[in-house]
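[SOLVED] Need 3D model of a two-part complex

Original post:
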Amino acid sequence: MSRISILTRRLPRQAEGERQRISVRTFAEPLAYLLPFFIGLAIFTLFPIINVFLLSFKEDYRMLSGEFSRYGLGNYAFILKDPYFINGLKNTAIYVFTVVPVSTVLALFFAYMLNKKLRLNPLYQTAFFLPMVTSVIAVGLAWKWIFNYDYGVLNFFLSLFNIDPINWLNNPHYGLWAIIIYGIWSYLPFTIILLLSGLQNIDPLYATAARVDGASNFKIFFRITLPLLAPTVGLVLIVNIISASKVFNELFPLFNGKPGVAYNLYTVVYYIYEVFYVKWRLGQAGAAAVILFLIVLVFTMVQLYLQRNWKHY
Amino acid sequence: MKIKLEGLTKKFGSTVAVDNLTVEFESGRLTALLGPSGCGKSTMLYMLAGITPVTQGRIYFDNEDVTTLAPEKRGVGLVFQNYALYPHMTVLENICFPLEIQKVPRKERIARAREMAELVHVEELLDRRPAQLSGGQQQRVAIARALVKKPRLLLLDEPLSNLDARLRLEMREEIRRIQQETSITTVFVTHDQEEALSISDAVLLMKLGVQQQFARPQELYDDPANAFVAEFLGIPPINKLHGVMRNGVFELEDGSAACRLPRWNGVAEGKRVILAVRAESVFIAGNENDRVFDADITQIYKLGKEELSYLRFGSCEIRAYLSREDELQVNQVVPVGLKEKGVFLFDAETGARYR
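Solution:
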């Protein structure tokens, strides 16, 4: 009798200790592994984000002394009246809404062709990955040469079709188009890779089933493949819109660090860069960054909302 | 529609998937292509559908040569093993899709799809998407989608293999019902003998791309053409005793036992043979005339209505369904008789049957 009671009393206590040890281990140990990442995230991502928000409300902020007159909306009021900022918003919008759709459609075409015959030879592989792995500035300089009025490859090709050479970089009317062409090219590889992996995840049986029913390739693509690819297309659009909204790197090498020859090619990020590093008006730079953040946020939310209706399975 | 295959051959590289097959499937019948995996039955189905090109030989639908005809021009409805319902379309849209391709007007499309949905009993599910359906329901929708364009031939690839045991029983009767109501010529592929034997009008049994036997299901069981057919069909599997014929006496290979088989007196002396005996063809001999050999009972399993006994015959064990009235005991030695039906003798090398 006594033995049994000792046993029964000890068992739950043991189990409890075990449970405690498990909960500590299951929580603390992974946390320890994750800690370096979280510290990095806090210092380099979270803190700057919060800081920029605060900064954007500090009026007459001086960086060296850290003094500011008061918290307010003065910075926002200023930049929203600044024609360069408005110009930057406009250029960025044009850039995003040409580069992202055009490069996505082109990438879809390439991905579809690649998916038909997947054995990529190394030459093609390199060609497709090149924009991703090469330094943006180096690529930019290459494009500067491509766009050259007198010796550029692009004008050479145009001349084959009897089109007069275009002064891509030094005529203010064409500068934005130069950036857009460059942008479309630079977004292709990433988009192709994502779309290709999306296409490869679609069971070829659906196409076979449709073919037995007499569907043409055209019909199969638009009624079967594309709807099934919609989630991937949605992802690609979100990622590319966010990243295209930050257009800056493409601008810098093409125009020797200026926003176009006539200072007419401001983008939002170029504006932030100039106000921050050149003019040292940190509060206004912060306000511009917050506005960009809000615009991108709204787009992402709208897209996520729409995408909910795309995925049915 | 009658289907005629003439010397049909399919090679993938150097492997022969279907080897010189000549056979005729009757119109309006349900034909099963049966065989172990890798026997070429699915390849054959896809050649009928026109998805897999033919290496050699011809396919005729009635008298029309369709060997090189594109799949969409053959008028076949195909149900895939995992159904391949379009996940982004509703059940109604799925069933309508073949008609949409044929540019049937929208109203007629929906009317015909509803009719099909009623035939396969999914009329309540038209607004659902495939992911919201059970396996059996998906199967029904897939059949409706295959039938809606009124094909000349319905092809089903392992139609029941993705279903659980109970649904399988239900769906195979459904397939039979749908086939009989529409009296459409149907060919289906299966590796499950019970499926093939229970619902089909004719079974083509294949092994490694070669036709073994084409017959009515019962004939296949009662009158197998060779050792493979006899072995492939039947649960429990047929008893196989390897031995040698000597002077009308069957002797086990290791010489541990022998019995007289007067039916096969004509078999050449010293021929290596397989004696195949179905479990239900063994009985306790009531008189000396019926007695073929004596055996002792090693085990008895009571399986409800029947009793499966294991009999020792030399070094071999024979599974037998013996009458319960005999009240047998383990270790009892009994005189064993073999019925005329369900006892076969095959050549050990070629598998050919001695009649």
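Edit: Chain A has twelve helices and two strands.
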